[in-house]
Design a protein that fits this description.
With about 600 residues, the chain is of the alpha/beta class. About 40% of the residues lie in helices and about 10% in strands. It starts with a helix and ends with a helix.
Length: about 600
């Protein structure tokens, strides 16, 4: 297979930029491997404490001659995707014994649901919950009584947080264990339609609630292709799942056998055997680029323009938005899954799913085949779909053609020759835009700005009819340092309504937009953010703003002399309540979005 020249060039760029930090990271995990988990060296009292909580495995743990797997779980039964994990640990302990190992729950980490907190104060804790999860993962693995780990998490901040913490213990072999999507309910398109009707006052609250419950109706991830399901696509492309584990539904025989296989595989890749595969060696520059390619080829969540750089930095790898932009111009769009199409992730899986996309990208030289993966068969194995054949788990070859060309296509006949991402630059700073679901005639918007400081103000202006015109809605002081960079999810319905009415509309913000954002052009993650002097703080109502995804520009069309002389708008005072005050230190120390928006990584100089 010949690697595409742009994939090779971007990878070389990442390798060169990461040379010093990656070398330091590999030295770290080398030292940790030499002095790390070694239960025979631990004191007897230390071991007794570690074994006291487990009756059924104590005799197996005592000799120290078998792998002990630490389970880090993000279980709770308020978050549908994580409710499936309730009985996983007890099952995994049995499967570990089958494989000649043992397993213990090393710790639990929080898992908040952005779907619950969207539009409310709790959302200001969301991004920093990722750092909290990373810290919790580090605490769980700090006991030095594990020779491997299983990471149980699926959703938005949980997978990135688990990896950010786990990579600091990168000498251990690890596997990500997903739980799968809920079965399809009310279609995402119909759900979005009811939301827009409600925003216009044409549907009442009861109708809206019934639609939402019909869409989000059972255990498993939400069925749209937002941040959670984009996580799963990236984990497949990095080789950190058992191949094909992403979208098998909960409660099925296939899902159970994939989880069993994950435990068995961990027992095979420990450092005492001949197939040692430590996490820190698996997550290298090529694996990070693979994740970016998979995201672009499927029109995945813009949130990963923050999360993937943060994951990468935890492994000493530095990727930036320029890399994403360059890759996007070379990587074709191979999937249309809501909000980039009408299909949900279950239909995506039925049509070929991640395996079909990965196989096609490998065939086109647009994904690195030679990375170290959890699977023995390497990346090629992730281009096959798992199935139960008889009583056994198998990975038969996929058909040559897609199961539904309206959802997934081959490398020879993509939906678009380019991926769904652009970087925007100009006198307002640097921002990201997802264009995979935006019609081409809306890639350029030039209109007067209306400036707001929170999304509630936007909703009020919309209801008052003040936005019924061509407008660039600007929502500032929404960056990591200002208020924790909440997703501005509640803006999606009113902006969609304005666009449906025929107005030319765009959003510009230093905050995040939902991972499921779609048809309205949105310049997001604008850096530097307003707090601390970002130029977005200079904008005034009526300034004409030009956003152009085609040329990659984002500019306030204000005379340079006037622009340079303007003062920055004062920041709103920080808000307390809902625990927001407890995260003040994280806000104060947070990096810019392009560096991952992390206080933890910034403080650690990663």
């Amino acid at each position: 297979m010949t690697i595409h020249p742009e994939l090779a060039a971007v990878t070389d760029r990442v390798i060169d930029r990461s040379r010093a930090s990656r070398a330091a990271y590999l030295a770290l995990i080398g030292r940790e491997r030499d002095s790390g988990a070694d239960r025979p060296r631990l004191g007897c009292a230390n071991l007794a404490h570690a074994y006291a909580g487990t009756d059924e495995q104590r005799d197996l743990l005592k000799p120290g001659n078998r792998m002990n797997i630490g389970i880090v779980t993000a279980y709770n039964d308020m978050l549908s995707a994580h409710a499936v994990y309730y009985r996983y640990p007890e099952q995994m302990k049995l499967w570990a014994i089958e494989a000649g190992a043992t397993a213990q729950v090393a710790g639990g980490v929080p898992a908040m649901c952005d779907g619950v907190t969207q539009g409310y104060q709790g959302m200001e804790l969301s991004l920093f919950s990722r750092d909290t999860i990373a810290l919790g993962t580090a605490i769980a693995l700090s006991h030095r009584t594990f020779e491997g780990a299983a990471l149980l998490g699926i959703c938005d901040k949980i997978v990135p947080g688990l990896l950010m913490g786990a990579l600091r213990f990168g000498h251990l072999p690890m596997v990500l264990v997903p739980g799968g999507p809920m079965r399809s309910g009310l279609s995402n398109k119909e759900k979005a339609h009811v939301r827009e009707l409600y925003a216009e006052g044409k549907a009442d609250r009861e109708t809206l609630l019934e639609a939402e419950i019909a869409a989000y109706h059972s255990k498993g991830t939400c069925t749209f292709y937002g941040t959670a399901n984009s996580n799963q696509m990236m984990m497949e492309a990095m080789g950190l799942h058992i191949p094909g584990a992403a979208f098998a539904n909960p409660g099925t025989k296939l899902r159970q056998e994939l989880t069993r296989a994950a435990v068995h595989r961990l027992a095979e890749i420990g450092w005492d055997g001949g197939d040692y595969r430590p996490l820190g060696q698996c997550v290298d520059e090529k694996a990070v680029v693979n994740a970016a390619v998979a995201l672009l080829a499927t029109g995945g969540s813009t949130n990963h323009l923050i999360h993937l750089p943060a994951i990468a930095r935890a492994a000493g790898v530095i990727i930036d938005w320029e890399d994403f932009d360059r890759l996007s111009r070379a990587v074709p769009l191979l999937a249309r899954v809501y909000p980039n199409g009408s299909a949900d992730v279950n239909a995506f899986e039925d049509a070929g799913g991640p395996a079909f996309v990965i196989r096609e990208l490998l065939k086109g030289g647009l994904m690195h085949a030679d990375i170290l993966t959890i699977a023995a068969g390497g990346m090629a194995q992730y281009g096959r779909k798992p199935a139960i054949e008889g009583d056994s788990l198998a990975w038969p070859d996929l058909p040559a053609e897609s199961g539904d060309t309206a959802i997934v296509r081959t490398i020879e006949a993509p939906f678009s020759p380019e991926g769904g991402f652009r970087i925007l630059k100009g006198n307002l700073g640097r921002a990201c835009i997802k264009v995979s679901a935006v019609e081409r005639d809306r890639w350029t918007i030039e209109a007067p700005a209306r400036v707001f400081h929170d999304q509630a103000e936007v909703q009020a202006a919309f209801k008052a009819g003040e936005l019924d015109r061509d407008v660039v809605v600007v929502v500032r002081f929404q960056g990591p340092r200002a208020n924790g960079m909440p997703e501005l999810h509640k803006l999606t319905p009113p902006l969609g309504v304005l666009q449906n009415r025929g107005f030319r509309v765009a959003l510009v913000t230093d905050g995040r937009m939902s991972g499921a954002s779609g048809k309205v052009p949105c310049a997001i993650h604008l850096s530097p953010e307003a707090l601390g002097g970002g130029p977005i703080a200079k904008l005034r109502d009526g300034d004409v703003v030009r956003l152009c995804a085609q040329t990659g520009t984002l500019e306030a069309l204000v005379a340079p002399a006037e622009w340079d002389s303007r003062e920055h708008a004062p920041a709103p005072p920080p808000q307390d309540g809902t625990g927001r005050e407890l995260f003040a230190m994280m806000r104060a120390g947070a990096s810019e979005a392009e560096a991952g928006g992390s206080a933890m990584l910034a403080a650690a100089r990663l």
